Batch of 2 targets.
Target 1
Amino acid sequence: MSGTDRRVLGVDFGTTNSYFSVCPPEEISPQGIDFEGRGRDGLATAILYEGNEIFLVGDKAIEEYSDALPEERRALTLMMQFKPDISESERAKKATIDFLSSVLSTSQERGFFILPEDMHVIFGVPSDANEEYKSTLKEVAQDAGYGEIELVDEPTGAIIHHVAQREIPVSAAFSPGLVVDFGGGTCDFTIMDNGRVKWSWGDFALGGRLLDDLFFQWFLDQDPSAEKRLRKDRCETFFLLSICKDAKEHFSRTMEKDKKQVVHKRMWEYGRLEGLTWELFLERAMNYRPSDVLLNFLLSGGISLPDRLRSGAAIDLLEWFRSTLREGLSRTDVDKKSIKYVILTGGSSLWLFAKDIVEEEFAGLDVRIVRSTRPYAAIAKGLSALPALKKKFDETKGKIQKDKEEFIKKEIEPYLVEHMDHIAEEIAQEIVIEFFDKQVHPVMLEFRKSETDLSLKELEKRVSEQAEIFKPRIEHIIKEKVDFLSRASVAAVIEKTRVWLGNYRIAIGEERLRPEAMGTEKFPILSLSSPGDKCLAIGKVMSGIMSGVLVSVVCGGSGMALIATGPVGIIIGAILGGIAGLVIGAKSADKLKDKKLGRWARARIMSNKAILRVRKKFHNKLREELKEQLEKVEAELTQHLEKIVDTQIEALSEICQL
């Protein structure tokens, strides 16, 4: 069976609970597995040994150990919360292999038919997990009977699930976002951009089991005598990790409904927790010290404890969570203001303080904070849906690539030609107004009105001087307009591409097209270099020809020679008393330019009507020169814009299909 035809098994192997989801290869319809028929996906990450033999796994293992008499527990060993430690502890590694293999055997006994050899198996992994952890996870999964597994960042599974459930708009998923995976053993933070992991950080020691320990100590503070009974019954660790965990979750659920409630909880046969309030919890959370029971549990697994837990000093768990979040945000190049969504996932994300801290850190910003009603199951479902989503996306992307050439010819190239003509006209118009009207026109009027006899060569000199003075301004005008052409072209092509991709049911967020994001080097999807360097060189080209163009217009020469030939030349000939023969060729024009003209002759030559004709010819000549220069770089600019289309297509992710 080929990889694309196999069902997909997504596994979120967790510290407290593990979740398994199965998805068909062709459909984005993941189904979580309820192993124990309790209406809830997943099962506890726990394994019970009787002697050296595997006895039970999951919640059944915890219940069996709970129901056993103290003397019966002497033959039992309950392993829990071993996931974070598999790369550091051989004991945790063995427990993981036994747990995962037992899940397979018990699932088949119950008719779930999880057959890894016939499935595409994906395990989630924390984004900041090191290579040693990843390698160990692959090894234990293979030893447990799952074959060659694929590892996918857990936040990827989370975002796929939340977008598929419409808890996050597809458009928002393209913007930078933050996934907070606060679980039983670890707390991971991941910046996502365009649906892909950009930056991740976290703390392998910060997790829900510290809060289990908080409730363990809270109970012992209320009933110190229970400690001897727990030690006698050899169930201190079990009590901490299971019974106190239940108490913690009960308290958390109650506080979410109403923080003013007072909570009481029976703690098995060992007593009760009384008078639990949110204020008392916060006080304990801000002054937490790990118990010897928790430290011994971690050390017995071969774990090297972080200094924070070994120091004996009080720990503010809330500040630990907050400072870890802040530190990571300060180290990434993603501006916190650009983050558009925060996903809270993992069982411990149900704590109110986690959401409160996130809201405080993003206060005043336009950010959507979401948490699934079942945040613990989100990752496994997203992981199992990923291959079907990729398959569908790859098919669509192939069609897009095939149709791209026609899109370029029909949409991009005609737009570029039209826009370049428009820019050429704008540049010509602005130069005519600023240069001809404001600089040259006054010189021509002065030439016409002067009491002194003047030659056309003297006018030519004055106009040339004005052109030289105006050169920097010409370059600025053209650079500014061509820069606008480049930016407007990029924006238009991106918008045209976005609309075109919509025909394939591919969504690209509108926020990618905001004006403040249009700088070519800062464009959030494309990361482009500045386009059209040769276009910007038009400024130098035009400043070089300006003097020649205008002098040709007014005084003849090798350019348009409007005075030496044509209507104005005839007027000059008539004025000079029948010497029209002098204006036939360039040499005659040169002689004519040297001749001194009186005021009356100059007035006839420089009539308002004649000046307007010169202005029009100058405008047309300038526009044609600009179009000619732009046409030289049209092919290159078209290629550049085509690269933008390619870059947009490459920037698409599977999430576009949701």
Target 2
Amino acid sequence: MTAPPPDDPGSAPFDAGGPLIRLRAVGKRVGRKREVAALRHVDLDVWPGEFVAVTGPSGSGKSTLLAILGLLDAPTEGTYWFDGTDVAALSEPERNRFRGRQLGFVFQSSYLIGEDTAVVNTGLALRVRGVRARERDRLARGALTTLGLEDRASTRAKRLSGGERQRVALARALVAEPRLVLADEPTGALDTGSAAGLIAQLRAAADAGTTVVVVTHDPVVAAAADRSVTLTDGTLTGTAPPVASSPASPRPPSAPTSRLACWTAEAADAARCVIDTSVRSVLLLLAYTLGVAALVGASGLTQSASGAVAARLLDSASNALYVGRSSPPEGGSGGFGDLTGAAAVIEGLDGVEVAAPYLSYAPADLEVRRLAPSAVTWPAELRSEAVVCDSRYPARLGAEVAAGGPLTLLDNSWGGLLAVLGAQAAESLGVADAGPGVTVWVNQHAVPVAAVLAGSGVEALDNAVLLSPPTADLLGSPISATVLVGAAPGRAEALRDAIPLTLAPANPGGIEVSVASDLASLQASVASSLTGLMNTLGWVVLALAAMSAATSMLLSIHQRAPEIALRRAVGASRLAIWRGFMVEGALVGLAGGLIGALAGVAGTIWMAQARGWAPAVGLRLPLTAVALGLATAILAAALPAVHAARRDPAALLRGT
């Protein structure tokens, strides 16, 4: 089949002996609000092994033409054949494979990944194709040797000179043995000596059978080419006739690569990016570390504290029972006398160590003043729970006297009024001592203060006013009448059943008995609420970490735009770009989760031991936290990954 004539852009594709590249009536319009013609009706043939220079002033459409030839952009009109194939008919995956296997790119900026070595940068296209590491290393080192860079193979790209970086970029373009190398101003940033060396290497590649198309302003580059064409305002002018050249020998087909090999290479690239991008990765890692550590620490410390509170509560109350009546109690000292009688009956039961009766009064029914109500100065006033009891009640709760006489003064036989103040109650009233002359006014009656208790951490003692039994006549009706029973070890449950039958054999349902297990259930409920609150705080920190990570990755896309464009140019698909960002996010989240879980466990153990608590951190908590950190990181990376995958490589290379 013969090639279609130049004036017949719609003709069928040519045979294998024709040009490698054939453009017919190719045009390209750019801009959204106001379209501009970047290319106008371009016809161009490039033969296998030919070295063609495209010259012209800035803005004439040279880079647009190169992007179309490299399948990074598509023409808005006309036809582009590559070796007889209409590239417009290629699907997106086929275009990606075409770029990876047929094309090589060299740009004015080398677009090397600075933290990677020269050999790793050279092998980028091979990694995208899934070539195994050993073979990839061999081919990349061979390409560097050809360009005189064998001694710089293990040097990080950021430590190479400008000429060396551009030679590495050329090695990257040639390593996969492409049929066409496209170079965009490759000598624009080089000194004269480096530029001459690069031109010679491009010339050598063309002499070896690789087709080379170079966009350039440099007349030296144009002079080295087989021929030059000129673009002016998007129109191709001054085209010299093609130089006769022998068709290049066909390249052996590339060895097929598996998807697993490609995915493995992508994961390795993502891991390398996480490791090498020091500042950004460290900040992201720190964010997830803090988030997971906060989650583990909050939950672990809450459980440890709850366990300590429960242990302390149960230690003090595991043998305690609270006995009361379902009907409202009677007021006055007579009511306490009846309660004392019930306590005496209970003390007669086997297994009872002490039975302490007490009446409780609501704060609203109690007015306690430091000074007499008629005092001119405004008196300190306390509204707190009052308890009428004898010495057995505070002794059972572990009260200790800080000032004044012994607790047995509450057992007075002369029927006098006495008060014992808890530590917080005494502080609120301004009472620092106890004894003769120290009084408080209870419902407008002067009551001597017999003792002030030391702080105990028990609310029933610290904020209460304990009154002797005769004081009950001043207070009205109590809200509860209770006997606090101290049982011998292991006897609480049996006494719970025996006490109602002993006190009211005809109506045992009228007696209510609470034991420590009820208190434990209450404590567990409180602990659950506290754990929920602390876990919520941990989740907030983790969510903030995820938001910070997503923001950082979105911002990094602009910084990494050349890398994204370069990966697309060497054959990476949009899906591969998406996977790369997702793997990066997952690796950061996993690493941050592991470090954060370890930090959270270590912090929990240290803080718990410092407070004398038993650390409550099992294996499930840190594993769950790591999984949550990983899941959060994956979610955070999703939007940046989609955004990166959707970026137009041609626009990225143009800096738009």
